[in-house]
Amino acid sequence: MIRHFPLIAACLVAGATATFAQDTFSEIGTGQYLAPLDMAPFQDDTWQGYEQEGWYVLENRSDPGAIRYYRGNVIGDVGNGRVQANIYVRNDDGQGLAAAGLIFDFNVETSTYAAFLLDHENNPMVLLRDEDGMEPIFADADDPVGRGDGTDVLAVRFLDGRAELLLNDEPFLNLSAESGFHSYAGVIAVGTGRHGFWGFAAE
């Protein structure tokens, strides 16, 4: 079932989802595979980034409310473009939420954005961030489900003020923006666990 949502503000995430802190981010550039993401190995108090069997992994074992994202001005014509990546997510301790995916429509002045994610149970979800907080949109029973084997591809396809969110080419959700989408996009990791990315591409 395809649901249509305007890309507008909503309430702070609560309940099953933690209140997220998002003070860790990096710019992304251009090129192939890890190069466009500029995702080099690193370690800080919350996150560790490393390459493993061709994937770039962001691992967080301490802060269930942490977010890390990489974004840049990568979509030339956001009215008719596409961004996608292979995603996998592991929640080793079984606690909290682990999710990874694409960040898009990023406003560099306000740090507001939309994120299309796959969670550790292989369900798609969306986070809409405005200046007041976040709104989660969770999958329904008849929405597509990921395979969890490293072959899952999340994609956002932009066309005439609409963003179509696809999991393995199956439609999940449509978002619309009256004033159009920002051209900044990238990848995002949410919560504790291991978040894997491969094959990021934007056009």
Report on the structure:
- With 203 residues, this protein is mainly β.
- It has a single domain, classed as Exo-inulinase, domain 1 (Jelly Rolls, Sandwich), CATH 2.60.120.560.
- The chain has one helix and 16 strands.
- The chain has one helix at 34-37; strands spanning 3-6, 21-27, 42-43, 47-52, 55-60, 66-73, 82-90, 98-107, 112-119, 124-130, 133-138, 153-159, 162-167, 170-176, 184-191, 193-202.
- It has a nine-stranded mixed β-sheet. Strands 2-6-15-8-9-10-11 form a seven-stranded mixed β-sheet, with no helix packed on it.
- Strand 13 (162-167) and strand 14 (170-176) form a beta hairpin.
- The radius of gyration is 15 Å and the shape is globular.
- The model is unreliable at 1-18 and 29-35 (pLDDT under 50).
List the defining traits of the structure above.
7-stranded mixed sheet; mainly beta; Jelly Rolls; 203 residues
Q: Summarize this, please?
A:
By secondary structure, the chain is mostly beta strands.
Question: What is the CATH superfamily?
Answer: Exo-inulinase, domain 1
Give helix % range: under 10%
Largest sheet: 9 strands, mixed
Give the C-alpha Rg. Answer: 15 Å
Taken together, the total number of domains comes to 1
User: What percent of residues are in strands?
Assistant: over 45%
Question: Which parts are unreliable, with pLDDT below 50 for 5 consecutive residues or more?
Answer: 1-18, 29-35
Could you say what the CATH architecture is?
Sandwich
Oligomerization status of the protein chains: single chain
> Class, according to the CATH hierarchy?
Mainly Beta
Ends distance:
26 Å
Looking across the biggest beta sheet, what order are the strands in?
1-14-13-12-7-16-5-4-3
